[in-house]
Amino acid sequence: MSLDRYAVVGNPIGHSLSPRIHALFAEQTGQHMVYEARLGRLDHFTKDVRAWFREGLRGLNVTVPFKEEAWRLVDQHSRRAERAGAVNTIWAEADGLLTGDNTDGAGFLRDLTQRLGFDPTGRAILILGAGGATRGLLEPLLGAAPARLVIANRTPEKARGLQQDFADLAGGARLEASGLEEIPAGPYDLLINATAAGLGSDGLALPRGLLHAQGIAYDLVYGPAARVFLEWAEAQGVGTVTDGLGMLVEQAAEAFAIWRGVRPDTAPVLAAIRATTGGV
Ligand code: NAP
Fold it and tell me: In angstroms, rounded to a whole number, what is the distance separating the alpha carbons of residues 6 and 61?
């Protein structure tokens, strides 16, 4: 019997933890499948992905820098991918059409609420960054009815663009946008670093007093790259700091559940991956 085949595509891709995460999910749930990392060719992405599915690939995860291109390549989008403007999970329907989904936001919210026990309802949230990752987080976060959500970005126009694009989902939340130099005063209950920059010499310079003492500082980046931001947050006396490894495992679990119809238990998988990557 040939095994169902899945993959993650990115460029670079050698660092990807996804093959290990999915192998652990498959082992835990008794699914017969293989999951491998594939290096995406920058000029041949669409052609290659279509060929892989024609050759029998069952599902594909997409990472940097192809998430927007993947959005354009698929035949149809899930509602949340439509909103996010980026696709990280693809599968072929029975008629051969490719569906694109985005599991990043759901993975983030699950990690935040289940592992960290944080309920965004009625809280003040500050997101640094206005790229694809922030776009993916906005729908689930606004859906959880925070009191206030501020998007602060190096290029303020991009933050304002997101503010406009998501205004219809704000409900009772105060949705604001700013540059990094004029972040509206806190304190915030949740600070999310969704930029591709750490703190430090040429990274972010943030004012003190942004966070509540019981607040959470969450860096979407994981491993050593998150260290400077998380050390800064710890020095502010913040209650909980975490990197993005939990989100990575949860967005993978979401994709796995879509593909295989079974949801893996993420806690032991996160612990196993954490044991080899370090971080918090
Ligand atoms: P992106 O679309 O390229 O956006 C990058 C963002 O970072 C932009 O807001 C950009 O600001 C900002 N930025 C870059 N360099 C900066 C600097 N030196 N100072 C201040 N701001 C800077 O990237 P993305 O897809 O949103 O991803 C953001 C981060 O989240 C990446 O590190 C990615 O690895 C991580 N991520 C993690 C997970 C997970 O599962 N844990 C999932 C998705 C993403 P401008 O608009 O001004 O350029």
Answer: 8
Q: Residue 148 and residue 187: Cα distance in Å, rounded?
A: 11
Is the Cβ–Cβ distance between 199 and 225 less than 8 Å?
no
Cβ–ligand 1 distance for 247 under 6 Å, the answer yes
Tokens of 106: 């759901």
Contact 60, 52 (CB under 8 A): yes
In angstroms, the CA 10 to CA 37 distance is: 8
Task: Report yes or no: 206 and 152 within 8 Å, Cβ to Cβ.
Answer: no
Residue 60 tokens read as: 């594909």
> How many Cβ atoms from other residues are within 10 Å of residue 27's Cβ?
11
- 238-267 tens-digit pLDDT: 989 999 999 999 999 999 999 999 999 999
- Compute, in angstroms, the gap from residue 202 CA to the centroid of ligand 1: 15
For the Cβ of 104 lying below 6 angstroms from any atom of ligand 1, the answer is yes
State the angle between helix axes of 156-165 and 132-143 in degrees (0 to 180), rounded to the nearest 10.
40
Q: How far apart are CA 101 and CA 223, in angstroms?
A: 26
Q: What is the pTM (predicted TM-score) of this model?
A: 0.95
Segment (H or E) for 175: strand 174-179
